[in-house]
Structure formats: C-alpha cells, structure tokens
C-alpha cells in the first residue's frame, strides 16, 4: 500500500521502535454519499472509523469488525487509499492502512467502555463537510492532534480521487 504521509511531532528525535501498532481505517459511503465519523466529545475531535488489527486478523477483517463495532454497519471494502505512519513518541510507531467502502446496512454502534467514557458519538456528513470539520478540530489531547493530521491525509486523498474505484 502506498505511503501517503509520515507524521511526527516537531523536533521529535526518533529512537529504536519499541512499540509498534497496525490499524485499519476507512472512508465509508452510505447510499446518500454520506460518511460516518466518530466525534470524541471528551477531547473535541472527530475520527474515521477503524482501529487496531488484532492477532489473527488481516487488515480487511479488522476493518470489517471495527465498522460493525463503531458504526454498527456491515460494509463492503471497495478499494485502498494508502497508509500513514505516525511516530507518537521517540520509540512508538503506528501504521494506519486506509480503505474505501460502502455501507451495506446500518445498525447501532457497540462502543467499548473506554469509547463511552470518551463520549464517542456517531455523526454522518458529506466528504467535504468531513474535511472541513476535521480541519477545524482543536483537540484537547495529543492523541487527537495525531488523529486529526492522519485523518485529514486520508480524507483529502479520497477527495483527490486517490481511489477511482470508489468514486471518492
């Protein structure tokens, strides 16, 4: 998958990676062309659905599970946008793989206790609205800063037609 960006804090001096995480994320379209975002009200930022790849899962399996949990939806993965590598600390690296897809059915999210505590809310908007919303976010924590940078790369890649098959 094509590398779209590397994100690190200014002046961060990288060390040997001691902790590595892989995650799958998606820009998913419903029948009206709207996409789901998760609003993290406790820290005031929005994020694309997705999350960590668990042992024994591949990227697509992880994304299908995450979409079911966070969006309450069955999805069909239709293409790839690319990956973003984040260096959140001198020795921590996360690689997020982003896909495009279609919402096949809508249900109710099944948020974890942590997600509930962070005030997760599911919101639907157009791709253009999502870009503007994420761009205006002023996250109250460091994680939100990274998520904003990462998800803007993915949303912009979709807008710029990175994945022609989906029509983003």
From TrEMBL:
**Start and end residues of each Nudix hydrolase domain:** 19-154
Q: What Pfam families has UniProt attached to this entry?
A: NUDIX
Q: Which UniProt keywords apply?
A: Hydrolase
The UniProt entry, under InterPro entries, shows:
NUDIX_hydrolase-like_dom_sf, NUDIX_hydrolase_CS, NUDIX_hydrolase_dom
Task: Tell me yes or no: is Ribosomal protein among this UniProt entry's keywords.
Answer: no
Q: Which GO terms describe its molecular function?
A: hydrolase activity
Give the cofactors, semicolon-separated. Mg(2+)
Protein name as it appears in the record:
NUDIX domain-containing protein
Q: Which organism is it from?
A: Candidatus Moduliflexus flocculans
């Amino acid at each position: 998958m094509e590398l779209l960006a590397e994100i690190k804090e200014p002046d961060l001096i990288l060390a040997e990676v001691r902790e590595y995480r892989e995650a799958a994320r998606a820009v998913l379209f419903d029948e009206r062309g709207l996409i789901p975002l998760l609003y993290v009200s406790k820290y005031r930022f929005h994020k694309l659905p997705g999350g960590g790849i668990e042992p024994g899962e591949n990227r697509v399996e992880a994304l299908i599970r995450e979409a079911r949990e966070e969006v309450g939806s069955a999805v069909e993965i239709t293409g790839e946008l690319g990956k973003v590598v984040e260096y959140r600390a001198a020795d921590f690296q996360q690689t997020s793989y982003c896909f495009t897809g279609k919402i096949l059915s809508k249900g109710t999210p099944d948020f974890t206790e942590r997600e509930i505590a962070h005030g997760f809310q599911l919101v639907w908007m157009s791709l253009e609205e999502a870009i503007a919303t994420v761009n205006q976010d002023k996250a109250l924590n460091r994680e939100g800063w990274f998520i904003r940078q990462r998800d803007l790369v993915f949303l912009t890649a979709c807008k710029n037609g990175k994945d022609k098959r989906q029509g983003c």
